[in-house]
Design a protein that fits this description.
The protein is mainly alpha-helical. The protein is about 55% helix and about 5% strand.
């Protein structure tokens, strides 16, 4: 919602990631407590690979639970290798974000959208589940594509009208 739109707009030459896995399930508060799955880090890595022509460096720098670190690192390496990632379970795709997180993100978007035009669209899916946000993105892409097609068709029709004489012009 914030990082990828800004990263795409910024268009970096290389992406450097300090890979601390404190957010992985297994790290208790106050060091973690976020309960992200290790698979999530694979998907995050896959998203980052779309930047900078795939020039991505991950540097392991932290984490306090050896199993969590190993699982998250494995998911990241698997993504880097181009392996098929395990699907995200439906219950995770349907899960809505925490209300406090949505409130924090609204503040971030309000401030950062002054500097990054790409964030202006992000607010519309802020409180949505991942599946709802993806559906909205797909609908928006379909709408943009349809409008572009209409625009091209209208230009083509307008051009034909200029080239072909109208019926009353042909009679004269």
């Amino acid at each position: 919602t914030v990082v990828m739109p800004i990263a795409n707009e910024f268009a970096p030459d290389v992406v450097l990631v300090s890979s601390g896995f404190d957010a992985v399930d297994g790290h208790a508060p106050p060091l973690g407590g976020y309960k992200l799955t290790a698979k999530c880090f694979g998907y995050l890595t896959r998203q980052l690979m779309a930047l900078a022509g795939g020039r991505l460096v991950l540097a392991l720098e932290g984490g306090h639970d050896l199993t969590a670190i190993c699982d998250a690192s494995e998911a990241c390496v698997s993504a880097l290798l181009g392996n098929e990632l395990d699907p995200i379970p439906d219950e995770v795709l349907q899960q809505r974000p925490n209300a406090n997180a949505v409130h924090s993100m609204e503040k971030v978007l309000e401030i950062q959208s002054k500097y990054w035009r790409s964030l202006l669209r992000s607010a519309s899916t802020l409180g949505c589940s991942l599946s709802e946000a993806l559906r909205c993105d797909a609908d928006e892409a379909e709408t943009v594509s349809a409008m572009a097609s209409l625009s091209v068709a209208n230009k083509h029709i307008g051009k034909r009208a200029e080239e072909e004489p109208m019926e009353e012009d042909a009679v004269m």
